[in-house]
Amino acid sequence: MSNQENEKDKIIEDHEYDGIKELDNPLPGWWLMTFYITIVVAVGYFLYYQVFGGPTLDQELKANMAKIEEMQQTHQAEEGSQFDARAVVMDKERIAAGKEVFQTKCIACHGDKAQGIIGPNLTDDYWIHGDGTVSAIRDIITNGVPDKGMPPWGGQLTSDQIINVAAYVYGLHGSNPEGAKAPQGDKVQY
């Protein structure tokens, strides 16, 4: 009986809808604790960023971009020191591995024999970007040419795969496949 008397004390007057009476029960402790913790975190966040001069989003972005650029320069310096273009173009295993990657990633635009479809013909003496060297081809594959529609493959292929494809493409020079696209760009000396 004390339970019913207790409920009568908790009933809020004029709060009955469809036969349901609303009681004035306290919120659960876990909910209140979560609410108080969020208030403390919000006050701490405000003080850190507004009063004590925490970094702004622009400052954090600049710091992160500086770290990324430093990492890229370090990686390029390491890669450049390990990259020997003459050895790469003579390595039959690398060229075969490059052909496999080329056949899966590049034939949609450059054709199965690099004769050029949407992308340029890679077998002639003319280059739109770069000078036709293995290093230039590697840089084009890595960074892409977004204004011409070539995506950067640096984030999708490993540096070894990129070097292999560059060696394969370099080896295609002078193959003169049937149906090759007309020369585009500047003529380079091999």
Write the layout of secondary structure elements.
Elements: H1 2-10, E1 11-17, E2 20-23, H2 29-51, H3 57-82, H4 85-90, H5 92-105, H6 107-110, E3 126-127, H7 134-143, H8 159-171, E4 186-187
Antiparallel strand pairs: 1-2, 3-4
Helix pairs in contact: 5-8, 7-8
Description:
The protein is mainly α. It has two domains: 2-51, no CATH class; 77-187, Orthogonal Bundle (Cytochrome Bc1 Complex, Chain D, domain 2), CATH 1.10.760.10. It has eight helices and four strands, in the order αββαααααβααβ. The strands form two sheets. A two-stranded antiparallel ribbon has the order 1-2. Strands 3-4 form a two-stranded antiparallel ribbon. A hairpin with a 2-residue loop joins β1 and β2 (20-23). The chain is elongated and about 95 Å long.
Please tag this protein with its features.
55% helix, 8 helices, mainly alpha, 190 residues, two-stranded antiparallel ribbon, two-stranded antiparallel sheet, Cytochrome Bc1 Complex, Chain D, domain 2, elongated
Here the CATH topology of the largest domain equals Cytochrome Bc1 Complex, Chain D, domain 2
Q: Order of strands across the biggest sheet?
A: 1-2
Series of H and E elements: HEEHHHHHEHHE
Would you state the CATH class of the largest domain?
Mainly Alpha
Distance between the termini: 102 Å
In angstroms, what is the radius of gyration?
33 Å
What is the subunit organization of this protein? Answer: single chain
Counting DSSP H or I runs of 4 or more residues, the number of helices is 8
Strand content: 5-15%
CATH H-tier superfamily of the largest domain:
Cytochrome c-like domain
Derived from helix and strand composition plus strand pairing, the structural class reads mainly alpha
Largest sheet: 2 strands, antiparallel
- Residue stretches low in confidence (pLDDT < 50, at least 5 long) are none
- Second CATH tier, the architecture of the largest domain: Orthogonal Bundle
